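Re: [help] complex structure
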Amino acid sequence: MSKNKLNYLEDGGDTPEIDDCCDHCGLPCRGDRVDADGKHFCCSGCRIAWQILAESGLCDYYNIDSGLQVPTGQIANRREYAFLDDSAVVDTLLDFQNGELAYVTLHIPDIHCSSCLWLLERLPQIEPAVLDARLDFLKKQLRIRFQLENISLREVVELLASLGYAPQLSLEDLKKDTAVKADRGYLQIGVAGFCFGNMMLLSFPEYLSINELAAEFRHFFAYINLLLSMPVLFYSARSFFKSAWIALRQKTLNIDVPLVIGMLALFGRSLYEILSGSGAGYLDSFAGLVFLLLIGRLFQDKTFDALRFDRDYRSFLPVSATVVQDGQETQVSLNQLKAGDNLLIRHGEVIPLDARIVDGEALLDYSFITGESEPVAVAKYEKAFAGGRQTGGLLQLEALGSVSESNLTELWQNDTFVKDEEADLVSFTNWVSRYFTAGIILVACSTFLYWQSVDPALALNAFTAVLIIACPCALALSAPFTFGSVLRVLSRKGFFIRHVNIVEKLAALSDIVLDKTGTLTHSGNSVARFESTNGRPPLTEQEKSWVYSLARQSLHPASRALSQLFSSALNAPVQDFNESVGKGISGIVDGHSIKIGSIAFAGGNAHGDQQASAHVSIDGRLRGAMVLRASYRQGIDGLLKRLSGMFSLTILSGDNDRERAQLSQMAGSDAHFHFGATPQEKLDHIQRLQDHELVVAMVGDGLNDAGALKQADVGIAVTESTSLFYPACDAIVEGGRVIHLADFFRFTRQAMMIVRANLAISLFYNIIGLAFAVQGNLSPLICAILMPVSSISVILFSTGMVHFLERSLPELNLQETPAAKGIRHSKLTEQFEERPMTEALGG
Amino acid sequence: MSVMFVLIILSLIFATGFLAAFIWAVRNGQYSDQYTPSVRILFDQQTKRRGDANGNGDI
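Output below.
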């Protein structure tokens, strides 16, 4: 990963001159600057990337989107992609191969601007064995066609990685999914629209009541209309019939049932009129209805291509692991790992299963699992849990079980992850349609009975007219357009919702459960502070310079953090420098003995702050300690107060309760707190709330919240960057936007009110139409006007109101990095964040 | 007036051609990515090879 560019403590100390910026990625060069051909680079990865571009004459890359950040070049770890030599893995990754040619689709999270597109599609210029490269920008997918005999998949991936576009290859990517569904939606709309347009044209004589038109033409037009309505009925409208049939079989009513009744009445009556020659029918209205409804479906099925809402542990674990067998290193795919295997884990790699440490110094970063940002040292022969990322040197492990038996994956065996959640959905529209359906059948039948006694010839006519006009198309369009607009508006504000149904659940929330670490606090952005020991004076400038001088002698992360903290101090010569592994460092500066390290090493008693990572003593007296504290997000107290005013608020943390006082002061007295909760306890807590018929939203980030997020009615994942891991969820909120959650919730409630108002509007139109229908005189013209007008006024009201209310939402703050700005400009909804601490640490 | 029959049928056949073109476009994947082509079209077809590779934008 990137080296020496982003110190993980942003101290703002020595801001580099502009000359010191890397000529490839533009980041400031620190430490090991690499010079070549009169240019300088922050690392050899960037130099190689530049060299590849220069040799291929592709240096225009730097000029395309000026001001945007170029991804840092990486020197591929020689073994990192070794698993791509395994032909079984390659076969699952390739889309298609025929011996010579192969197609592969790779997901590349680092794509963020148009120069990425420019460069990646010119891959054949860099490597002739690559024949063709095609990028889908929003999905961040690169589809490559290459000659298998001249280049292997591994070499393609390594080339991409050396340019800074490392593809994401995880276990989950080995499962293929297809995007046929979206295409079928377009086809259905296209066919319906085509038929609708032509039928309207042929129905014009009817609209204009041109009676002098010869009867043969009328019949001719009517039969062509009938012909054109066939694809609409049997192809485009199929999904409505299917959905209504499923609902009826489950003995419930959804909105599709009255729609289908209306459609069948329209079609049946038209068929009768045309075949009997008594009239022209309403087939144009029928096609128009299906066309509008399909557009509504398309609008509500907004998806965010760059986001995945269904990720589980598989996407976090690597595809394979290095196993040592008889002194030989081989890549074994995760599913084939078994207890007793000897694994090799290198710096930056993730431990795929629970294992015992056999050799090496383990410094494991469990931040994805526990949310705790500080790496944990694990001693030899102790257990290391799956999901930990090694941040030290080489590690030798002995597997204790298979991947599915590990602690991490156990949570996914829970029933919550198996159940089908869409099955029990009761939306407002479906709830209304129960009464609606009963209502129209009642009105239709009483109309029939009335006319049966007055004028039997008109009875069937009036009956079908009621069914036609009462077809709740306006109602059916209300929720898709309102919630579809909400989805789009909120995505512009940094809040991404998986599906329109979730908006409705958000509006009905009664309880909010918040995780603390990573949700209320910044994850991976701890702030280092030096806290003086009680009763001792703070460090003077001179003392700081002594500590600084000693600390910079060591490469230990704690020492580096400490030297960053005091980086403004002067450097002084250090004598008798001594580093005791696992304890600390000592030395003599200006004749004073300085010790930095564990509390025992620094000479204090064991009652010191356990959270501190480095204690400092001067001349044998303990003076203080450097503490890494996760900082709360700015404005979080305001959010907590507002949320506890709107909902019943619970804060559920895996941490200990040392910050209880601070939290309860921020959240007010009504909030509940639970500390030290395990992932299972979090899930159980949500379940208990739901047992009391409460609608619960869970807001969390790490894998430890994954169960609770899944169990909750609405699981909201917090992520600093959507290219990082986040668990499966219903909605995703950008880290910086968490404090606006209360506004987002209020917005969904307002949207629900719009849907209710739409119900009134559509009922109003229905009553007007029914007034015509019960009298038995429904002309095709009235039908052709009333239906689209009611639908379109509902669509306009929904989208208009949502966009009017959008103004009350907080604006996105554009004072971010230039890269983030560029992404906003290029309409990408994803925020480019600085590399998180976990990656920057590994330098 | 009977020419109307011929004309309407002809126009429908003609229109079906467009429907077929639409179906072909959807099947061809032209609707699966609606954003990237808008960026791609702005690049010059043949970028001139620059003598010096000195271009780091204005970062």
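Helices of chain B lie at 3-27, 36-40.
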